Amino acid sequence: MAALGANLAIAVSKFVAFAFSGSSSMLAEGVHSLADSGNQFLLLVGGKKAQRAATPQHPFGYGRERYIYAFLVSIVLFSVGGMFAIYEGYEKISHPHEVEHWYWPVGVLLFAIIAEGFSFRTAIKESNALRGGLSWAQFVRRAKAPELPVVLLEDFGALIGLVLALLGVGLALLTGNGVWDGIGTVCIGVLLVLIALVLAAETKSLLLGEAAGADVVQQIETAMVDGDTVTRVIHMRTLHLGPEELLVAAKIAVRHDNTATEIATAIDAAEARIRAAVPIARVIYLEPDIYSETEAARGADPEATPGGPTPHPAPGH
């Protein structure tokens, strides 16, 4: 919401500055801010749609809608922001003209830097509460919720773009050559294209389906084994159904002399321990089995081995 408010105000001011000055950097930056505003709106829509309850047709819910809308953001940023800026910069380099009423673009750029700085500061504050000891690059790569990484990259790119626009306008004013304004515009476009490609790569990975992080997997395994009825985890798979929804499927080893009632009770207890340790583990499927050294030697997932046993669901779980 902070980013949306800031970008709408900045977009209006940039278009006003373009109307008075004719600066192509201002036009490119105005379109950039307008695209960013649309992107924040898409993220809000995706977040709202992801809250819908599961249906028979979509039994695991709509959590991945957030990833779809985040991917749309990368497309908008690439096409509307990046490619338009590159085209506009090329036109300005081919047909340069002096920047008029220089105080408009300079004043708007300074205002925009302050507004984007506010938005960027808000995104940093919200991200610091989640990233722990991760570096910023690691946080962007590993975050399962797409909104904060998208806003962080957008605001970071916007601040750099504003500096480039300021340099382009400044050099055009100092030299009297409008080509510098066009060069600044092309640089803004290239920057936006690069950010869009990074966003597309990250959201594509989330759309394909990412497992839980290594630390979360370790917490689940620790909670699952009680050392009494559940003696070990034979193999396990996790999948993010959404940023706050995790599917856990595992084959667990139980003692050969346990009764069906004891095994069912042990599975219920294991599920409760997992949810207590990792609250986002919403969907859990545990299949009991007798641990076999031969089966373990085949690898982490014996059922994926050609000729291995046919997968089958655990009764009642």
Automatic annotation (TrEMBL):
Where do the TM regions start and end? 67-87, 102-124, 151-173, 179-200
List localization entries. Answer: Membrane
Q: Which UniProt keywords apply?
A: Membrane, Signal, Transmembrane, Transmembrane helix, Transport
Q: Name one GO molecular function term.
A: monoatomic cation transmembrane transporter activity
Q: What is its main location?
A: membrane
Q: Where is this region: Disordered?
A: 297-317
**Signal peptide feature range:** 1-19
Q: Where is the Cation efflux protein transmembrane domain?
A: 2-208
Query: A Pfam family name for this chain?
Result: Cation_efflux
Q: What is this protein called?
A: Transporter
Return one Gene Ontology term, BP aspect.
zinc ion transport
- Bias (Pro residues): 308-317
Q: What GO CC terms are in its UniProt record?
A: membrane
Q: Which NCBIfam families does the UniProt entry name for this protein?
A: CDF (TIGR01297)
Q: Which InterPro entries does the record associate with it?
A: Cation_efflux (IPR002524), Cation_efflux_CTD_sf (IPR036837), Cation_efflux_TM (IPR058533), Cation_efflux_TMD_sf (IPR027469), SLC30A9 (IPR040177)
Q: List the membrane topology term(s).
A: Multi-pass membrane protein
